[in-house]
Write a structure and sequence with these properties.
Number of helices: 5
Largest sheet: none
Number of domains: 1
Helix content: over 70%
Number of strands: 0
Structural class: mainly alpha
Order of helices and strands: HHHHH
């Protein structure tokens, strides 16, 4: 890890990764919207999960406060899971316009190549 972080190529590789994410999410007509939605769900969720897990770790084992914290974390994670599944199924309806998986891949790749 230290070698990677100290690498002269780190900035170049990070720029490539950001550009690849932008290219895929912004221009992939089949999956771009779904990936964008999932990113919008997961980005803020990470902070909440850290907060909940910190609260769990800070409360004494076996206490009612710990149980409450664990229940809140579980409920939050179930909500995230539901949001991901719901958005996935919603997105699946749009993919049904393609007759087969080959058509999905071709539409996705052609949109990336053309930059639409």
């Amino acid at each position: 890890m230290k070698e990677v972080l100290n690498s002269k190529d780190l900035e170049k590789n990070l720029r490539k990764a950001v550009f690849a994410e932008y290219l895929w999410v912004q221009h992939d007509v089949v999956f771009g919207g779904l990936i964008q939605t999932w990113m919008e769900i997961f980005r803020p969720a990470g902070d909440c999960v850290r907060s909940y897990t910190h609260r769990v770790a800070e409360t004494p084992a076996g206490s009612s406060d710990r149980e409450e914290a664990c229940n809140e974390l579980e409920s939050f994670c179930k909500g995230i899971y539901e949001a991901v599944l719901t958005s996935g199924y919603r997105h699946l309806e749009g993919i049904r316009q393609y007759s087969c998986w080959k058509d999905v891949v071709e539409a996705s790749m052609s949109s990336l190549v053309s930059g639409r």
